[in-house]
Design brief:
The chain has helices spanning 64-74, 130-133, 150-163, 165-170, 194-207, 229-237, 251-260, 283-290; strands spanning 11-18, 25-32, 35-45, 48-59, 84-89, 96-101, 117-118, 174-180, 185-191, 219-223, 242-245, 263-269, 272-277. By secondary structure, it is α/β, with parallel strands linked by helices. The chain has a six-stranded mixed β-sheet with strand order 9-8-10-11-12-13, with helices on both faces. Strands 5-6-3-4-7 form a five-stranded mixed β-sheet, with helices on one face. It has a two-stranded antiparallel ribbon with strand order 1-2.
Length: 292
Amino acid sequence: MPTSLPPAYTATPFSILRIAADAPEIDADLIAVEEPLEIQLGYTRRGIEIRKTVAITMRTPGHDQELAAGFLFTEGVVHSSAEIAAVEPAPDTPNAVVVTLRPDVAVELRTLDRNNYITSSCGVCGKGSLDAVRTVARHPLPEPEPQFEPAVIHRLPQTARAAQHGFGQTGGLHAAALFDRDGRLIAIREDVGRHNALDKIIGARLLGAGREAIPLSDRILFVSSRASFELVQKTIMAGCPVLAAVGAPTSLAVELARDTGATLLGFVRENRFNVYAGATRLRALTSALMHS
């Protein structure tokens, strides 16, 4: 069942001055909450237990454990749910989550070649180099054969928007949504950071009832934002063949999608969309291209 209610701490009230055609008036407004989350990794090396901070991200509180697990998975530090022993709030640090790995898991932190701080607006900020972003995907994408109807893509924005309760309150949250191939909503998460929202979705599949839910080989990921390089990377890491975005893609996002065989859709709104990569996964389009 899709999550229908936002976390209790999604929004907070502020007193504001509202300006309109009439005289200014003092009013109350709900503002999207943004706070830091420290992601810590617990692991064993040569018999010694280590706990290390690997990232600090600005996020909207809620689904923090999913966010931490999803982040480590999409960054290539964790490769499956079987490697995770526990995900829980740090006992000695507020706004912190510890992902503890099983003792026999080898840890490779070079994939996190970044500064220790990630902004909520762009998870790729602070990367040491482009090579650090191109983590090796362990879940190859399925062959690009026709499997999705364009009509399904047209329905995604309206379906997702109806479930964006935090955005409805504040107007200030991004959403990432997971759909099946028929356009049925499986899960949705909101956050001030679009990359956080996507990590929460992927983390939910990694830690949830369906611990075998990754790879997302017959699913569609939808984001209420532009499609950046990192969002395409996270989609590919989760083994999902299709990323659809309300906004435009970046040049690196298009290049990565084409290099890896992913389907990338942009400007998905108002019953239209652009196909930037992987058109052969769309049934009607495949037929039209063959006869053009």
